[in-house]
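I had to read the description of the data format several times before I understood it. In essence, backbone conformation is discretised, so a fold becomes a row of integers matching the chain in length. I therefore recommend that a typical entry be quoted early in the introduction. For illustration, here is how one protein appears when written out as sequence plus structure tokens.

***
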Amino acid sequence: MSLVVLGGGRIRGSSHPNQTPFPLSHSHSSTLSPIQLLKPFFPALSFHRPVSSFPPKNLTISERNSSVLRAQNIDYKSEKQRSLESMDSKKDSTELNRELYLDIEPYSTGFLKVSDLHTIYWEQSGNPNGHPVVFLHGGPGGGTSPNNRKFFDPAFYRIILFDQRGAGKSTPHACLVENTTWDLVNDIEKLREHLQIPEWQVFGGSWGSTLALAYCQSHPEKVTGLVLRGIFLLRKKEIDWFYEGGAAAIFPDAWESFRDLIPDNERGCFIEAYHKRLNSDDKDIQNAAAKAWTKWEMMTAHLHPNEENIKKGDDDMFSLAFARIENHYFVNKGFFPTDSFLLDNVEKIKHINTVIVQVYHPFVASSVILFMSCTSNDVNK
């Protein structure tokens, strides 16, 4: 497994502020976002060969998969240096999105019935003959957005996005029945088969990285490469740090709003207290809890407030799906048999070329350090 640590990500699960093995200089660390850092790693400007000639057809499967990831890294240092020199910490989310590829529209969309109950929305954009990559959104329950297409060079990639069960355009909305990690893993495989894709690259951030690891460990033979942004392993210590007071020291104002919805006698476990309200028969109680949960998430997703994200907390449809599904997964410990399940099974994917994109700041996520320590020694920093 080849790991390239660049920077970018969120701070969920950050519990070891002194462990900072990442290579970016501290002077830039507080101003860099995932959006700013991903562009130099996926450089449209430096990759001009037509897709039809790449990867070369005479390569072995292993060489082919490795070359696909390396192709994204052409002129990496010079691109990265130029990006660092031009970074401006005052950029808003609209400006940061310009650091990615241009807006594109899907060339095909559809709905796939994955069970008697659930139907998922999917779309394809970019190059129909390009290298296939599937994007796994965060949350759980976050759904996809048009901006997610912009992570990828549309001339090189066949970009597949889909909304996980209960999220986005998938139906039934905000449904928790038959909604587990392993249901989603099976859905990814059903979608790959439906689109007649022999194998593909997997890209996931935050919860998407959790799901990406679960999928790749279940179907490693179908994966050409893996990109993990802001690794989240859904371990108890990560959840407790974020929802039981650890993150409150960094975001005290946001924490007050999240905390104050819950009476004093139920504050021993905020996740359980919110679970009770998010599953209440009273829709007003349910919606109030959903908005408070979502606003806490959105206000803490970045060290600097992102107004576009924060507004999602006022969207009834989005907040209900996001809060209910995310809380459902956290209450059930990600539906993993053990707390360290993903780390315990990392051996299954050591042969897969992997890139980690992770932030460097004083609250660096401990999950990345743990994950890197469990992988091979072939680490590029």
